[in-house]
Specification:
Elements (H helix, E strand, L loop, with lengths): L3 E5 L5 H13 L3 E6 L5 H10 L4 E5 L4 E4 L3 H4 L2 H5 L1 E12 L2 E5 L18 E5 H10 L8 H12 L1 E13 L1
Parallel strand pairs: 1-2, 1-3, 5-8
Antiparallel strand pairs: 3-7, 4-8, 5-6, 5-7
Helix pairs in contact: 2-5
Amino acid sequence: MKNVDILVLCRTSDEERAMLEDWVATDEQLCNIIYVDGFSTSSFRKGIQKLKTTYVLVLDVTLAFHPAYQMVARMQALEEANAAIVYADYYEEKLGKVTLNRLIPYQEGCIRDDFNFGPVKLMSLAVLREWAVWESCNYSFAAAYSLRLFASRKGKIIHLPEPLSTKKE
């Protein structure tokens, strides 16, 4: 995997934008950062139109995000398994205390709307684009859920049982 764009689905501070830009500058696999405001269908579509790479890191954190060393390379299961989504465990730092959030493996057919995929997911741009054409509803907040259900019909959803990022409050 050599080219990965980042789609940021939330408002970010100048400090968070600077951190993301530094990350892109130091990771040879990352290309562009596309910022959109919110989780609506129209926000997703605006972002998807600007993406240019085969794979996309989708960030939906509103707090500071810090990737683990070689996070993108370690998420290469997407390419190897023809997966639609890859997600991983993560650390969460609150009030100076760091805890490990072990996520549960996705089960085929799961329809719960509160499934925790963590703060970052690696997705196929082809699946994102296909969803953007297919989805006829203009959701205000449920676009991510619609996309996840759509993606689960297009490929595997793979959980990597290792922490690949830290979410800070």
